[in-house]
Structures are given as C-alpha cells and as structure tokens.
C-alpha cells in the first residue's frame, strides 16, 4: 500500500499492529509505529491504542508504557493492553494499580480487562481481591463470558478453593475450549483425577475437540496420581485426534513412567521420539532417577543435557546433583561453575500471605515485619509442639537446596514458615492459611508444614513455583510428589 502511495488510515493501522501482536513480530511492529509517527496518526486514539497493545503483547512493556503515557486520549484497548502486559510479566502490583485506575475512568471496562485482573489475583494467590473483582463481574454481567470464566476457575483453583472453580464452571452454560482446559488443569492440580477423566469424557460427548493443552492436563493428572496405564491411553489417543505429541507431552510421559519406577520404559520413549528431546524431557528423567536412586542413568541423562548447550539454572542444579550422586565430582563442580559463570542471579526466596487488602511478604529469617516478635514466638512454640508430635528436622536440605539462597539461613525460619506463623496469630481459627512462594518448598519445610497442619488443626495451602500443596491433618494433597 505504502509503495503505491496509498495512505493507511485508522482502520488499517490497528489491523497491521494486531497481526504483529499475533505473530510476536515486534520488529515489523516497530516499523509500523514509525510510519504512524511520520503520518501523524500517533494522536489517534484507535491507532495509538493498537500500538500500545502490540508492544505489550510482544512483551515490551516499557515501550508500551512510553506510548501509553503520552497518549492524549485512551480507550479500553490501550488500558487492556497495559494491564494484560503487566499480568503476563508477573508485575502484579502495577497491573492491579492500573486496573483500579481504569475503573475510575469513564470507560466501558471489558471482559478482557476483568480477566487480566482476575489472572493477576490467581497468580499471586490474592483470593479476597479476586472475589471482589468476581463480584464486580457479576454486577456488570460479565460473569457468563468464557474469558472471565476461565480466569475465575484458575483463580479459585490456584487459591486452593476448588469448589469455587467447579461452581463457576457449572454456572456458565456455553463453554469454550479454554474453560474446559482451565477446569481440567484445576482438577489435575487438586488431584481430583477421576473428575478430570470424567470431564474429558464429557468433552467428547458434547463434541468439544480436545487440543494440545487438554492432553497436557490429563497427562499431568495421570502423572500426579501415578496412573501409568491411563497415561499411555491418553498419549495414544492424541494421535486419534490428529495431534502429534510435542516435547511437553513426552516430558509428561517420561515423568509419569519415571516416577512410577519404570525408568527403562521412560528411556525407550525418549529413544523413539521423532523430535529432539528437550531440557524438560531430560529433566523429567532426572527426577525419576533421583526418586528411585538410579545414579548411573541420572549421569547418562546429565551428559545428554550438557550436549543441549545452554540450559536453565534449575537444570544445572539437577545435573550437578546427579553427577555428585554418581560420584563424578569433577563434572558436578563443572555444572555448578557454569551456573556461576553465567551470572545467574539467584532469586531471593519470598513467601507472602494476604490479609484483607494487604499483602504481607517475608524473606527467610526476616525480622522486618511489625509483628516479628509474636511471629517468632509462635514459631518457637509450634516448633516444640511438632517435635513432640514426631517431627525431626532434616538439615540435609540446608545443603542440598542450592537453587535457593536460603541455604545459609537456619532452616526453621524459611520464609513460608514465617508466613504461616503470621497467619496462625492473625487469622480467626478455622480460616485456611494461603501462602504463596516464589521458589520451591524444601523437603524439610514440607514435612514440618504437614505436622503444623496437624498440631494447629488448620488447613494450610502453599503454592510454590512448581506446584500446589494443600496441607490438612498431617497430610499433603501432593502425596509427597513434588
Ligand atoms: Zn524450607
Ligand atoms: Zn505437598
């Protein structure tokens, strides 16, 4: 168009930027933005908003914000783009701040903005705030939208309220695939395995065609419950639906077989893969080897990981531990050194808990909280109580957990324990304590929290970066698989 001298207008620019967003082609998006500026369309609310949305969806929130901040007039697309962008990046505070601001604007807030805000609450386990937004959706009749519905299901599931997720699912009569998948993930996360299988059957009955994600969910449910035969069934079923398993489906199968101790079967699945096994596939095998103490196979898998080239920092830890267990200390040291050389910044272990509209954050050994004295006193008391109930501290986790910077801290003051103690002294009896953690829960804390749930008679829900734990009466919903 530009070549033949036709000037794009306020309809054509948004279409072009939308295409860039869908394809994640920020390079072309930037060129279009330049043409927008040259042709003086940057002041146009539709064009400007579409540019903001494009940058945000392509993951460049800073450029999105630059354009957003200087716009003379904004609409739901620009607000929605920004809120979605911050949500995707996990910047919950900014996403929620903008959400509150947009409610004050005289705009018709759409389902997209609501679903982003609900997702933020789900990702940060902010149940109370999420419920308030749910209430707003009901008032504004967005409660029957599938986008909002999927977000709500995931909110309730991630906050440990599976009943809430079922309720939302049942109340929305016309369901899209996203909603079915959201409900399946929720069932898998809560180990409602039979319910997940039922849902899958219901999907087939109503003629909803499952996709890649659907199969990932059922495979995850199988893996969680150690159901090898069912896993194989669904894995084969994928092909009947014309879906070729991707690396994550293979990783799931390897995880399932590995955890069940069928390590050789896992290896033969990997050998038969038509695509190159990825980090997650080897990672799943390494996990199986660790559980079943097969140090030789673990070292073999570790060798394969090294051949892949650069891998994530978590993988270096797995590999290093595998070599160390096999007595190959030089390679173990090498894996650790690679991690250090790459300058991987270790994330600080943080746990947080929501109280009303406030979020209380804790780091390991943290004494900054205004209730610190009471929190530590509660932990001391609880420590004695759980020891009498049979808990023995496993300090080996202090050394093993090299992926967290908490190793130097006394294990009993890990951040999640501080958050739980805060909940115990603050929340009325009977109210479950929901804790969110950005790193994996260590094995010793996992054991300790089981005892804490028994001794205090509380339901304690901890969502770490890996999975979801619901502790009740001395047991955890993960069945110690995590
Ligand atoms: Zn711990
Ligand atoms: Zn658990």
UniProtKB/TrEMBL annotation:
List keywords of the entry alphabetically. Answer: Repeat
- What is the scientific name of the source organism? Actinidia chinensis var. chinensis (Chinese soft-hair kiwi)
Each PPR repeat, start to end = 44-78, 176-210, 211-245
Q: Which GO terms describe its molecular function?
A: RNA binding; zinc ion binding
This protein is called what?
Pentatricopeptide repeat-containing protein
Give all residue intervals belonging to the DYW domain: 390-482
Please list which residues make up the signal peptide.
Answer: none
GO process terms (BP): RNA modification
Q: Which family does it belong to?
A: Belongs to the PPR family. PCMP-H subfamily.
């Amino acid at each position: 168009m530009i070549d033949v001298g036709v000037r794009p207008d306020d309809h054509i620019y948004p279409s072009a930027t939308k295409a860039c967003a869908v394809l994640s082609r920020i390079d072309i998006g930037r060129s279009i933005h330049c043409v927008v500026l040259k042709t003086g369309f940057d002041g146009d609310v539709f064009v400007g908003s579409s540019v903001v949305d494009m940058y945000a969806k392509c993951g460049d929130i800073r450029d999105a914000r630059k354009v957003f901040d200087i716009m003379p007039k904004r609409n739901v697309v620009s607000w929605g783009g920004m809120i979605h962008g911050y949500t995707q990046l996990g910047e919950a505070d900014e996403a929620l701040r903008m959400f509150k601001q947009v409610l004050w604007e005289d705009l018709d807030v759409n389902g997209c903005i609501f679903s982003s805000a609900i997702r933020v609450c789900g990702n940060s386990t902010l149940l109370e705030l999420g419920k308030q937004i749910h209430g707003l959706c009901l008032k504004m009749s967005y409660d029957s939208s599938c986008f909002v519905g999927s977000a709500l299901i995931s909110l309730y599931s991630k906050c440990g309220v599976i009943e809430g997720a079922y309720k939302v699912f049942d109340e929305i009569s016309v369901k899209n695939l996203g909603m079915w998948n959201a409900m399946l993930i929720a069932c898998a996360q809560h180990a409602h395995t039979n319910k997940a299988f039922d849902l899958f059957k219901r999907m087939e009955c109503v003629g909803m065609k499952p996709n890649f994600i659907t199969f990932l969910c059922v495979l995850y449910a199988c893996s969680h419950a150690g159901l090898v035969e069912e896993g194989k069934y669904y894995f084969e079923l994928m092909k009947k639906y014309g879906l070729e398993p991707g690396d994550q489906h293979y990783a799931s199968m390897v995880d399932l077989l590995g955890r069940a101790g069928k390590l050789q079967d896992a290896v033969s699945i990997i050998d038969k893969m038509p695509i190159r096994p990825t980090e997650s596939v080897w990672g799943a095998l390494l996990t199986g080897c660790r559980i079943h103490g097969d140090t030789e196979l673990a070292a073999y898998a570790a060798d394969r990981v090294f051949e892949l080239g650069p891998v994530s920092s978590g993988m270096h830890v797995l590999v290093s531990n595998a070599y160390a267990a096999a007595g190959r200390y030089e390679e173990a040291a090498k894996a650790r050194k690679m991690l250090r050389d790459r300058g991987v910044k270790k994330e600080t272990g943080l746990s947080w808990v929501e109280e009303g509209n406030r979020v209380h954050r804790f780091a390991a050994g943290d004494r900054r909280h205004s209730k610190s004295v009471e929190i530590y006193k509660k932990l001391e008391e609880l420590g004695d109580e759980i020891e009498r109930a049979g808990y023995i501290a496993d300090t080996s986790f202090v050394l093993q957990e090299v992926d967290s910077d908490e190793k130097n801290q006394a294990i009993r003051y890990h951040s999640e324990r501080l958050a739980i103690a805060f909940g115990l002294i603050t929340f009325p009896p009977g109210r479950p304590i929901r804790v969110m953690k950005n790193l994996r829960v260590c094995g010793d804390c996992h054991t300790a929290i089981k005892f804490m749930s028994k001794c205090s008679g509380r339901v304690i829900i901890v969502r770490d970066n890996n999975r979801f734990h619901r502790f009740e009466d001395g047991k955890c919903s993960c069945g110690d698989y995590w």
